Amino acid sequence: MTLWRDVEIWRIPTARPADLDRLTSWLDDHEQARAADLTDAAARRRFIVSHAGMRRVLGRRMGVRPGEVRIAVGRHGKPYLPTRPDVQWNLSHSGDLALLAVAYGRSVGVDVERLRPELDRAAFARRFFPVEDAEFVDGSPERFALLWARREACVKAAGGRLAQGLRLPVNGPSPAFVRDPAGTLPGPWLVLDVPVPRGFRAAVAISVWPARQRRALMTP
């Protein structure tokens, strides 16, 4: 699915039957160690399937096999491709759904959130979010998940820490133009809500620069 020029979103269902041994063989030593550390079988399966799916997509873009995709980790754990710095991507998973965003020449972040109605997010939003964002949430799990997905997508695109993005003003119609008022995170970003199955909310953020480029990116 193409959302903006040079930006793709791939949905990776992690609950489908899969040959886990084969998919695990595609992962590098670091990924295999992380999978082995997951004691919950369902969480381990989701990790393996989502990371293998990521490698399949990136491998096709690079003309190599999934297991030959070389991934390095930068600041705050943000992964990158040492041999293809122009290819930017980000992976997010929640429950049995994973999303992969791929962009070219621009930093990108994606986040998917499973709704959890049992959690009261109103107090958290009032404490940490900008006033307009907190008022929009108004105790709604759906609205909280939407703004949280937008916020995390921006933080991931910036390669920052989540605490740096709690005050980002991300409320408003999609696509939204988001800038960090504190100036601690690089940007700005265009943020777009991503269609996902019922019970989830998701968003993708891509870094932009001059106004002319922002207008071009928003043109399908």
Description:
There is one protein chain. Strand 9 and strand 10 form a beta hairpin. Helix 1 (20-26) packs across helix 3. The chain is globular. It has 220 residues and is α+β, with helices and mostly antiparallel strands. It has one domain (2-217): 4'-phosphopantetheinyl transferase domain (Ribosomal Protein L22, Chain A, Alpha-Beta Complex). Residues 210-220 have low confidence and may be disordered. 37% of the residues lie in helices and 24% in strands.
Please tally the β strands and state the result. Answer: 10
SS-derived structural category: alpha+beta
Order of helices and strands: EEHHHEEEEEHHHHEEEH
Low-confidence stretches: 210-220
CATH superfamily: 4'-phosphopantetheinyl transferase domain
- In the sheet with the most strands, the strands line up as 1-2-6-5
Condensed summary:
This protein is of the alpha+beta class and 220 residues long. It has helices at 20-26, 29-37, 41-62, 122-128, 131-137, 141-158, 162-165, 211-217, and strands spanning 2-4, 7-13, 72-73, 79-80, 87-94, 97-104, 108-114, 176-178, 189-193, 200-207. The chain contains eight helices and ten strands.
What is the secondary structure topology, with strand pairs?
Elements: E1 2-4, E2 7-13, H1 20-26, H2 29-37, H3 41-62, E3 72-73, E4 79-80, E5 87-94, E6 97-104, E7 108-114, H4 122-128, H5 131-137, H6 141-158, H7 162-165, E8 176-178, E9 189-193, E10 200-207, H8 211-217
